[in-house]
User: What shape does this take?
Amino acid sequence: MNLDFIALASIAFLSSFGHCYGMCGGFVLAYTQLSKQIKLPFFLLVFSYHISRILAYVCLGIFFGFFGSLLSFTEFAKGMMFFIIGIFMMTLAFALIFKGKLLAFFEDSLFFDCIIKKNISKLIQNKSLKSTLFLGFLNGFVPCGLVYFYIAFGMSVQNVYLSALIMLVFGLSTLPALVFFAFFSKTLNEKFQKTASLISYILIFLYGLYFSYTGFIFTK
Assistant: This one.
């Protein structure tokens, strides 16, 4: 299977100006507030936060890449995995486009509410560089439709190293928008945000369609 890293980076980059602002904007504002109370350069806090966030994505890529590699014993198993991932991606694309209860189903998480939110509150109160690092790492585990898309893609390659690389590309591609948000929050036109997000969601749907077709061919 050929990997188009330009397309994967484009999806992450475009969606980061819309969806990521909504999902991760609160985290960005949290460490922005921390920076006012920590006697360290702001760029250092931004750098440490995002390095930790990207590291969390890479860890997810390694875990799910390993899981995906276990499902490649037969052509039929591979086909079924592709088909299911494709259906998941198309459903996810519809959820991202139309929002509502379907997206809430994907992005609501008992684990997040019970564990991550509680730790976020503690970290913000600590006001240290270590708090910023941990805040960034926890951000990587926030329930997010786009993260799920890249995890699914990582599973599909059935290779731990490629899966980790895919998640690294995702993290790096969201970096410009989120760094921009940290310095100039609420400066982007809302119409631009919606248009960029819509384009990325359509690309996710097309990837899902491609995966489903590939899976169907493998199972024939």
Summary: The chain has a mean pLDDT of 76. The longest helix spans residues 190-219. The chain is about 85% helix and 0% strand. The radius of gyration is 18 Å.
